[in-house]
Every structure is written in C-alpha cells, then in structure tokens.
Design the sequence.
C-alpha cells in the first residue's frame, strides 16, 4: 500500500504522540497501488461525469430551442385575389368551349392558299382548261392560256373570280370556274405560356385564335398561377420572295406582335380580336402577376413583377429597349381599375425618362405598356433599305 499525506498531516508538523493518530486519519484516504498506474479519486470521476452530462444537456436544449423554419404567410387579400383569378380563368375556358361548339363558320372557307397546296381547277365551258396543280414555293401556279398566276394569300373564292375575269377578258364568254383545294399544306402553330397543353400543333385549313386555345386545352388555372388577361400573337417575318422584291412590302418582312385582350374577346364578344392564324404564328399567354410590354420594343412580352417594384424605364430595358422606329415620346400605359372592368390610359415620355428629365413612374400588376411606331422614322428606314438595295456595296447608311 502507498500512503499519501497532506501537508497538515505530515509527521514533521505533528508531534510524536500524534503520529499514530495522523496515520490513522490518512489511512482512510490511502489509494491502492496497482502496477501500471494510480486509480483516480472518486470525486474527480464524478466531477467529470457531471461536466459531460452538463454539456450534453446544453446541446439538447439548444437544439430543441432552435426557431422553427419560417413559413410564407399569405395575406387574406392575396388569397381573395387568387380565388377570383381562378374563377375568371374558369369562366374564360367555358367561353372558349362554347364559342368552339357554337361556331358555324366553315374552317376552309376563309383559308388562304399557300405554298404546297394542291388545287383542282375546273372550267365548265372548256374541259381542256381543267387542271390539278400544286402551288409553288413562291406561291404561283401555271394554267393553260393564262400562264403564271400569283395565288398566294388568296381564298378559293377570290381565285375563282380572278380566273373567271381573265378568261372572260380574252377567251370565253361568261365562264364558270370552280376551285377546289384537294390537299392542304400542314401548318405549324405554337401555343405557349398559361395553357393546359402547350406545344407545337399541326393544323389544316384556316384556324383562329380561339380554335388553337381550344386545341391547347384552354387556359391554365391553379391556386398559385393563373393565366393573365392578355394574349400575345407573334407573327414572324415572312421569307423574301420575288413578289416582295418587286412590291417592297416592308410590313411582311418584319415580325409583328398583336396584343389581344382576352376579356374583350371572351366576355364582350369582340370577334374582331379572334384573328385568323397563319403558318409559323406563336401564341403566348403569360401568367398573371406580370406587366406587359408591346409595340416597338425588341423583345415584347410579359415580365414578372415577383413582388418587387418596377418602373417604366426598367420595363423598357427588360424588353430589350426601343427599336429605331419607336416613338417613345407617345408611349401609353393601359391600367385596369380595381374592379377590373374599366381601363385607363396614361401617357409617358420614355425619352425624357431615360434622360432624367421626367419622373419614372412605378408600374402595377397587369399594366400594359405600348410603344407606337414613328411614321417619320419608318419612312427613313424604308429609304435606307431602298438605298442599300440599289447600291449593294455594303455602304453603311445607318445615319439615315
């Protein structure tokens, strides 16, 4: 056994008579000696266990008291607005379905002839003039006696009248002509955005905006995302052909964007907005909660607000900026009233805003910005393009 003395219990301090007593007192604190080490005192082991328990307890308490993850709180006003928007989309879909079922319009009557269509032409007074002919890629056909005729963008009725007038002028008296479209070319029209079935659709015959909305399953509606009040019909530029070189029709050589108010079309019955579609058209219905920029900007369309504020100048920038032909000083903002039934028009000068000479107003949800075309700039652009075509030497005329 190894005996351990404290300083007060050392024999040098106590007298000789007390040595035995001191030894007996220390005997109770003796630690058995073992080969390889000394056993730690029991109070030290207890203190260590207490520290470990304390640390573990603090860790558990800190984990339990961590704040729960924040949840997005939706205000009652937003919930009411989303519910009303869903009801509006449902009513619009009902109108789309009803207009499709009740339409008595012949989808082929107003169809405009185009390349690759196969036409069967019959002249009742002379069987030798009867012919089945396919429209060329330039939109022309060749007929006996009459030669080459331009038929692109004509309806069957209009072509009948033209052939009848030409034959009556030189060859036949009161001829009777019939034009039958035996084969229609496949037209591809894209539908994207807030519809149930977006995609590329192959169609035959003349189709309208409502026809394609019905084919796409109607407008999309959910508790969080609903279709907006506007439809954008984007018509790409047509490829240049021989007639366009002669005609110099600049309207067909530039992309167009038509903005259609779905409420005017579906609820007020303005069928002038139910535009006929052609090959290559793109229909885009942005989701609600956006602002819309159209007209003479480089990238027209709908842009999300995402809970943030956006000014007119920022919206023009997001839309790619103004085109050269734009008349930014006559820009209009169309804004729906709180009831959603009336719309007011506000005038802004984009040029003054960009120069810092005018206030840059904030936009509201579903605001529509339309930038008109400048007649003078459009004329100068036409002059510039004409000079480019005449010179043909790559001379820079961008200063015109």
Sequence:
């Amino acid at each position: 056994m190894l005996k351990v003395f404290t300083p007060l219990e050392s024999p040098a301090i106590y007298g000789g008579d007390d040595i035995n007593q001191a030894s007996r007192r220390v005997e109770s604190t003796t630690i058995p000696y073992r080969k390889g080490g000394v056993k730690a005192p029991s109070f030290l082991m207890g203190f260590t266990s207490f520290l470990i328990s304390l640390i573990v307890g603090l860790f558990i308490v800190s984990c339990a008291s961590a704040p729960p993850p924040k949840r997005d709180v939706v205000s009652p006003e937003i919930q009411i607005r989303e519910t009303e928007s869903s009801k509006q989309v449902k009513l619009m879909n009902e109108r789309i379905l009803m207009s499709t079922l009740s339409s008595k319009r012949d989808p082929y009557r107003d169809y405009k002839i185009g390349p690759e269509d196969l036409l069967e032409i019959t002249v009742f007074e002379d069987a030798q003039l009867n012919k089945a002919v396919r429209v060329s890629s330039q939109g022309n056909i060749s007929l006996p006696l009459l030669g080459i005729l331009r038929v692109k963008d004509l309806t069957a009725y209009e072509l009948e009248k033209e052939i009848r007038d030409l034959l009556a002028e030189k060859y036949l008296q009161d001829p009777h002509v019939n034009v039958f479209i035996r084969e229609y070319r496949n037209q591809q029209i894209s539908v994207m955005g807030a519809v149930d079935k977006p995609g590329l659709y192959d169609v035959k015959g003349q189709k309208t905006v409502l026809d394609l909305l019905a084919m796409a399953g109607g407008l999309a509606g959910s508790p969080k995302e609903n279709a907006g009040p506007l439809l954008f019909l984007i018509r790409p530029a047509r490829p240049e052909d021989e007639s366009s070189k002669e005609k110099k029709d600049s309207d067909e050589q530039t992309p167009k964007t038509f903005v259609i108010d779905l409420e005017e079309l579906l609820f007020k019955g303005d069928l002038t907005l139910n535009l006929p579609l052609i090959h290559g058209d793109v229909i885009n219905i942005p989701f609600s909660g956006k602002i819309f920029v159209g007209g003479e900007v480089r990238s027209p369309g709908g842009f999300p607000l995402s809970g943030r504020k956006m000014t007119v100048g920022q919206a023009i920038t997001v839309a790619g900026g103004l085109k050269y032909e734009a008349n930014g000083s006559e820009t209009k903002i169309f804004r729906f009233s709180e009831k959603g039934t009336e719309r007011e028009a506000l005038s802004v000068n984009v040029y003054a805003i960009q120069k810092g000479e005018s206030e840059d107003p904030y936009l509201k949800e579903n605001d529509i910005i339309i930038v008109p075309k400048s007649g003078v700039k459009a004329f100068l652009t036409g002059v510039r393009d004409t000079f480019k075509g005449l010179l043909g030497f790559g001379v820079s005329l961008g200063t015109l």
In short: The chain has a mean pLDDT of 74. The two ends are 113 Å apart (CA to CA). The first strand starts at residue 33 and ends at 34. Residues 388 and 395 are 7 Å apart (CA to CA).
